[in-house]
């Protein structure tokens, strides 16, 4: 087994194909294909299913990818350690967040302190944030529920109650506070399953014996906001995430307050990385 063979396998897996892997590694596609083929032949295994121009991992390939993720992440950490003087002048910090606005003050301070570092932020829900961290697709995550796993290092950012909201011209727009039963008598616009906001709202509805059925199910907080703004129904969000939007009116739920804890998390095994540690230390030092 050679390093170049594992590297070829790893990049084909994460890039989704031989051509993309070759572009990423600045090699030719035949060279990448040859390295993967030699690895499969040497151990008499099939790592990829090849159908027409698409490749997918076999079960054995999935298991090997878990190992190479750790292997190449360790390599990156070693490189960061050995090039410490350059680590905070360049590089990319990848963040996956269910609500990026919880990090805005940290992002601004981080960019001011480390202008050479590129920060990538993409959206997700609680499930995709955790999955992305485990798959090494992100360095840090922000999510609306503090995970119980000891695999993570956790920094609580804030807590905020869940509220309802409607378009400014909705029949409920004049109400400041309503019982959940009165709210759900109107069409509801809910987040996708896997959203912690939806999970907690469903738990409250079950406790109060209220039937919670979405008229519209939308993926992502912004999608819900735009659909509600069109007048299509009632949405739910935390008070902190509601912010200000002249098109919308907030409604407090007349029920025991349901709080969403927003936390910054990373895998403990990656917490010592220069970029992760720098961002973490800065987040700790700033007021919420």
UniProtKB/TrEMBL annotation:
Q: Which Gene3D superfamilies match?
A: 3.40.190.290, Winged helix-like DNA-binding domain superfamily/Winged helix DNA-binding domain
- InterPro entries noted in UniProt: LysR_HTH_N, LysR_subst-bd, Tscrpt_reg_LysR, WH-like_DNA-bd_sf, WH_DNA-bd_sf
Keyword terms, alphabetized: DNA-binding, Transcription, Transcription regulation
**Does this entry carry the keyword Zinc?**
no
Signal peptide (from-to): none
Pfam families xref list: HTH_1, LysR_substrate
Q: Which residues form the HTH lysR-type domain?
A: 1-58
The text of the family note is: Belongs to the LysR transcriptional regulatory family.
Q: Tell me the protein's name.
A: LysR substrate-binding domain-containing protein
Organism expressing this protein natively: Mesorhizobium retamae
């Amino acid at each position: 087994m050679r390093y170049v063979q594992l590297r070829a396998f790893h990049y084909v897996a994460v890039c989704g194909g031989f051509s993309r892997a070759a572009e990423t590694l600045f090699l030719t596609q035949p060279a990448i294909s040859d390295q993967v083929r030699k690895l499969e032949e040497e151990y008499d295994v099939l790592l990829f299913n090849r159908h027409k121009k698409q490749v997918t991992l076999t079960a054995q390939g999935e298991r090997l990818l878990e190992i190479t993720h750790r292997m190449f992440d360790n390599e990156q950490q070693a490189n960061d350690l050995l090039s410490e003087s350059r680590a905070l002048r360049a590089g990319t910090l990848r963040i996956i967040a269910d609500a990026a606005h919880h990090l805005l003050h940290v992002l601004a301070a981080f960019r001011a302190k480390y202008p050479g570092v590129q920060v990538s932020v993409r959206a997700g829900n609680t499930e995709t944030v955790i999955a992305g961290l485990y798959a090494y697709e992100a360095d840090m995550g922000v999510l609306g529920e503090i995970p119980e796993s000891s695999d993570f290092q956790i920094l609580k950012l804030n807590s905020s109650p869940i509220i309802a909201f409607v378009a400014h011209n909705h029949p409920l727009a004049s109400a400041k506070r309503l019982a959940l039963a009165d709210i759900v008598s109107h069409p509801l616009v809910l987040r996708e399953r896997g959203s912690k906001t939806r999970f907690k709202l469903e738990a409250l509805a079950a406790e109060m014996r209220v039937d919670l059925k979405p008229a519209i199910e939308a993926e992502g907080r912004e999608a819900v906001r735009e659909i509600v703004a069109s007048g299509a129904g009632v949405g739910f969000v935390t008070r902190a995430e509601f912010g200000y939007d002249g098109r919308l009116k907030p409604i407090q739920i007349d029920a025991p307050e349901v709080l969403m804890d927003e936390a910054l998390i990373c895998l403990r095994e990656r917490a010592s990385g220069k970029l992760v540690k720098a961002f973490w230390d800065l987040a700790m030092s700033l007021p919420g």
